[in-house]
Amino acid sequence: MTLNAKAYADPDVFERERREVFAKAWIIAGHIAEVREPGDFTTTNIAGEPVVVVRDADGTLRAFSNVCRHRAAQLATGTGSCGKVLRCPYHGWTYRLDGTLAAMPEGRGFGEDFDRDAVRLPEFKVDTLAGLVFVSMDPEIAPLREWFGDIAERLESLNIEQLVPVTQRDWKPREILRGIPDVLRSRSTDDAKALIPPAEHGRWYAEYDHNWKTLSDNYLEGYHVPIGHPGLLRMLDYPKYKPTLYERAVWIDGPLRDNPSRDTMERLYQRLHRPMAEFPAELRNQWTYIHLWPGQFIDIYPESIDIWQMQPLGPLRTRTCSIVFRSPNETLQDRFVRTINQRFNSEVMDEDVTLCDGVQQGLGSLTYTRGVLNDNEAAVGHFHDLLRTAVPGIDDAP
Amino acid sequence: MTHRKFGRHDWLGLTPEVERFGPLLVDRIAAALGESHDALGEARVEELICLGDAAAWLAYLGALTALVDRGAQSGVAPVETDILAGILRDQYRLAPGVLVLTEVDMARSQHLETLLEQR
What we know:
The structure holds two protein chains of two kinds. Chain A is an alpha+beta fold. Chain A has helices at residues 11-22, 144-148, 151-156, 173-179, 181-186, 189-194, 212-220, 225-228, 230-235, 264-272, 332-363, 378-390, and strands at 27-31, 40-46, 49-55, 61-65, 79-81, 85-87, 94-96, 101-103, 123-129, 132-136, 164-165, 204-208, 242-246, 249-255, 286-292, 296-301, 304-314, 317-326. Chain A folds into two domains: 27-140, Rieske [2Fe-2S] iron-sulphur domain (Rieske Iron-sulfur Protein), CATH 2.102.10.10; 161-396, Naphthalene 1,2-dioxygenase Alpha Subunit, Chain A, domain 1 (Alpha-Beta Complex). Chain A starts with 10 loop residues before the first helix and ends in an 8-residue tail after the last helix. The longest helix of chain B has 21 residues, at 54-74. Chain B contains five helices and no strands. In chain B, helix 1 runs antiparallel to helix 2. Chain A binds chain B through residues 37-40, 57, 80-87, 92, 94, 102-109, and chain B through 1-4, 13-14, 16-17, 20-21, 83, 86-87, 89-90, 93-94, 96-98, 100.
């Protein structure tokens, strides 16, 4: 059975999920390439907590609350290098890369009783796996690899470490169009530009009026594909669409069909796509989807790998953060194929958002409490069981 | 170490505490030492804020550090010397957030840390 529908709108459940689910999980903060050198940092948000990951002068990766202890301003934004210190952009409080307060402007104005040596940024656990930087706010959490169990090894096999995050500068629609005369005949530059959402420091953000579990449930099952995504059904060999459950993860194999699609764009993708050199051989003729507990998803395409994370803002409001990785040796054709994929999957996402709009309203119904799950929805059941364990009583909402 | 890119005017964020307390402390320490302090006083701070740059500010901090040193060695105006040393130490601690310190600046910074630890 599914979770109680009330769990998808209840403010108390939302607050417990922040503390018991997101604050007690290992959450992806970025790519290892973003924090390669001392002073390099990347930022994220976990359970509503702004987090900064920085490589200190000794080369150690550290994660801190990205909240100035003075007046709660965010110390760092996006990704970049902070040099030798983290300096608050609001009043200039300056922290060493070990999280201690170095000094604050006009320090004598805080009085002699103020113990500046006692001020330090709360520190969180940080580790890396498969080229990704993970952070946990839970000091008692199991080590990263142990926590994710057997799927850790499969993640390592994806070679994400060898890829580079896509930034806005990577998107060059004019260049793509110039290189592909066929497309130039059929599409305007404005159309191509419209394919490309704005990126901030290699991250793409979106917000939805859905509970984060509504979006997650939708990702986790292929049962709705034939009904909700006709285009995807033409691409994916649906009978072979298969989820494998792990302790805190799901791995979904989505083999691509051999027969060409009737749709021009889909057929173009089928004809032109070729796997990145870094791509694991066994996944070359499929799209693969991974769910990492609690709300992080990895789409593995032959020409790119996308990470999509849930950042719940409220019971009925969710921000999602996407990071796209490409080969460092991407050619013009590869980039074009990636753009087609981007457009195709944007349409799939639009279809999903419409479906989730309806589901979220339905979950507020006076006459619906919970539903049954098909075999093809096993990953949803697994997800709900993990939630029942992490948030005892989540099903007991009146 | 990768350096962040600093704004050309970021260093101005360092100046308020020096502007507020520096001239008076300089007056007292220099007077106790029997020195002239025209090049370090209020007018100089204002000139630096209005017309100066990061390098000139660091040079000014260097001159103040030398004054602190002379005060500490001679033992005159110990309270004022300690306060100014503390202000300067904070300047050097804050500085990496707004500009790049030279080796000489870093040596001054370390010298002030040591001086204050000993007192």
